[in-house]
Write a structure and sequence with these properties.
Largest sheet: 5 strands, antiparallel
Structural class: alpha+beta
Number of domains: 1
Oligomer: single chain
CATH class: Alpha Beta
Helix content: 25-40%
CATH topology: BirA Bifunctional Protein, domain 2
Shape: globular
Length: 178
């Protein structure tokens, strides 16, 4: 699976709501082909009210125990699967992968996730940049790479049928410039 991470630095509630609205767009969460129910996975968030989610993320961010002007307020992360893996990705498998991701990526952060059923399935995550304890949840590139390898090892062990979605995270990028 491919993992992509985007940092959001705005503390404005309107920016937080815009991200939530995009990710949790009911049309994107529909599985037209298999008719699966939309999937929402949460960590340290109690309701299903998206307005309350925005308030909770904002309140959590205000409880930070550190000062940094260019800090990340929210992380928008996406894991994508090969189209060939789609037929093997049941709702339960997607839920298991989303829960694993939230628990191991940032265990003390608020987070929500959902699946978009486009050409290739992908899971969107919104993860707070501040833990529920008020600490920064930043990880280095090296730590993030180690997490991606651990995630893929979990995928291969638990769901070997998703072999089309295996990516060599441990390989170094090859430069194409001369």
């Amino acid at each position: 699976m491919i993992v992509k991470a985007i940092s959001h630095k705005s503390t404005k509630k309107s920016s937080i709501k815009k991200l939530i609205t995009y990710i949790f767009n009911p049309e994107k969460m529909k599985d037209i082909q298999k008719g699966r129910e939309p999937l929402i996975v949460k960590q340290f968030i109690s309701s299903y009210d998206k307005e309350k989610w925005a308030d909770a993320f904002k309140k959590n961010d205000r409880a930070k125990t550190f000062q940094h002007t260019k800090r990340t307020v929210l992380r928008h992360e996406i894991i994508s699967f090969s189209p060939e893996s789609s037929k093997y990705l049941s709702r339960e498998k997607l839920k298991t992968l989303a829960k694993y991701y939230l628990k191991h990526r940032s265990p003390y952060s608020m987070g929500v996730a959902t699946v978009h059923y486009d050409k290739s399935l992908h899971i969107h995550f919104i993860i707070s940049g501040v833990s529920i304890e008020g600490n920064s949840t930043r990880v280095s590139r090296k730590e993030f790479k180690a997490f991606k390898i651990k995630l893929q090892e979990f995928q291969q062990e638990k769901f070997p049928e998703l072999s089309h979605s295996v990516v060599q995270h441990s390989k170094k990028k090859v430069s194409t410039s001369n």
